[in-house]
TrEMBL record:
Subcellular location per the Swiss-Prot or TrEMBL entry: Cell inner membrane
Entry GO terms, CC: plasma membrane
Function: Binds the cellulose synthase activator, bis-(3'-5') cyclic diguanylic acid (c-di-GMP).
Keyword annotations from UniProtKB, A to Z: c-di-GMP, Cell inner membrane, Cell membrane, Cellulose biosynthesis, Membrane, Signal, Transmembrane, Transmembrane helix
Protein's name according to its UniProt entry: Cyclic di-GMP-binding protein
Amino acid sequence: MKRLTTLALLAGMLSAPALHSEEPGSGSAAPLSFPQLNDAADSEPGDEPPAASPEEGASPAAPATAGDAAATAPAPVMPDLPPPVSGTAAPEVIPVAPVWGGDLNLAQMGMPDGIILSGGQRQGGVSFTLPADQVVIHSQLSLAVRVSPEMASRNATLQLMLNGQPLGTLPLGADGEDVSHYQLDIPPALMVSSNNLSVKINDGDTLQCQRDIHDTSRVTVLPTSHFSWESQQLNISDDLSHFPRPFFDSMQMTPADIAVAYGAKPSADVFSAAALISSWLGIQADYRGIAFSALRDRLPERHGIVIGHPGEQVGGMMLPETDKPLLRIIANPANPAYKLLLIVGKNDTALRMAAWRLTRGNFAPQTATLDVEPQTIPVGKAYDAPRWIPTDRPVKLSELLRKDQSPTVSGVWHEPLRIAFRAAPDLYLWDGETIPLQVGYRFPSESWINEDKSLLSVTLNGTFLNNLPMNKQGPLEKVWRYLGGDARQERFTIPLAPYLIYGDNQLSMYFNVVPKDDVPCSVLLNNNIKSRITDDSWIDLSKTRHFSLLPNLSYFVGASFPFSRLADYSQTTLLLPADPSETQVATLLNLAARSGNATGTALANNRVVLGMPTGGGDLQSLRERDVLAVTALDQQAFNQSLLADSPYRPVDNVLSVREPDLWQKVQRRLTGDWTSASLDADRYFSSSSAWRGFISYRSPWNSTRLVVVALASNDDQLARTEDRFWNRRALTPGSAAIPR
């Protein structure tokens, strides 16, 4: 019955007009027609290669960068329908199902170099997912394919399949262009929650296996190739058990946008709760990315989160009166097809408890409203971030694998094994000391493998480390092997220089299995051979120490350090102007999400201060904590107080750099700072009318603490702060960072 209901719903969607469909772009794109879906609903799908899993910042490290040999793909699985809404009154006006537009390219699917087919590899693929609460009503695939001249001369074609169903066949290089563009209309019923796109070269001229891995015949489906679609959203019940859906869906592979609304006169406790929730959602977003918008006394047009006090008005809607912290899901008054999450509390403690309870989850089904009982919020310890690799023991590489990863690879041509891990950015070793990386590995025991040329290639963050041979090297080992002895090398320790470890790292290992010259093609295409990284592989950071010379904005950009030293921000004050703009609040929430993503810890113990305090608990928090501030140059009074005892000076909406006195120059030289660029920075600030970035300096309230300020010439520039910073693995250490 569920399947019949699903098919009936899809049939209704297919007959609906595309409200926002776009005309196919003109130019070199060649429109193609496609075969109809198989009549039998349960027909067997065709063979497809295994797909590459999406990864964060995946970098190429081996000759083969596309999918493996063919494997049978499951038939498309329709998403489960959400439970019907019960026990609620019907709205006066039936909401119109919203139509969404979406776009997803190969780079966002975890293929930053696209799908590359070369050498003997003739098949590849990629998996991708779509939000589970949306039904596609129109879709299109736009392909950009680069074909080498050698492949173009062979009259080959590229076969496309989606979820086991054929989409069509493309001529490779027939138009004589280096890059060919195609647009393919996709039957909407094929686009479901979990999808697999596969490509296969049909070589009509030679049909011979390629032994030379350096063969120049190459086809690349460029990473700009993308799916675009329109979908209608399914209405779901007002149910906290779905959270973080519908505000954030883990099936969505593109960056999420979430609106946070608050009243006309917000207080610091509202922003503190918002930062806690934003950081937790940043954890959930993982590699996808997430961005927040702040709405002052306005309701979101779509899904959104509303935070405030009992009885407070937000965009014309009054928040519920309550004595306890409250969580509630309601239909958006602006459009009942969307949902609002209400977080209500009478003070900082109540709002913090409500926000903390929300991040714990485990709500009973059909829970639209929850009165939050008193919560115990733990206080973190230094360097306890769960996403940072432990430094008190050797860590097995198997511990760093994702749940969907295996240390074993199949066949001659395969994807490299990529292992991502994060580390505290202030790890330090004395000169000459290194970090040991032990790699245990095992090649297949096949007689047709060239044991002299087969290698395990190891790279870290794009830096080549070593080619590990299949057999031990040396004259005695070679003699022993000639006499029939076992000379296999299955373990090797690579010393890592400390500067190779960033806040965000990726270790890549590729088994380069080289066959002998007389091996038949059928053997090369056999996918039964297995190569694997064994369980005795580890990396040991236990001899490292935590030491850093601050300020150093490369640490902040890479891992929100030093604030993330205590990842729950129990030693951090978030500082905003007394009357912050929506952009300034949104920037603070994005910084909170960035920190949560880097550490895996929500900012449960953060403290927000509005304006520059002159006494009381707020001033004490500035003295006892590190400070992360957000402002723009139009906040003149706030900036004057904030930067009064810093190396920077705001003058008439222009930021300048103070000339250091003799004692400050001596101090810099004694600490090893011989590259001060104060004059260059001052010239840049004074000559540029539009800029944004970060500045950092020792706290004027406590010389052992640090201040980092997200600052821009205006709010328009502040909104673009994250455009260029977060894509860099490392920045030059310094106290000012301005992208150009």
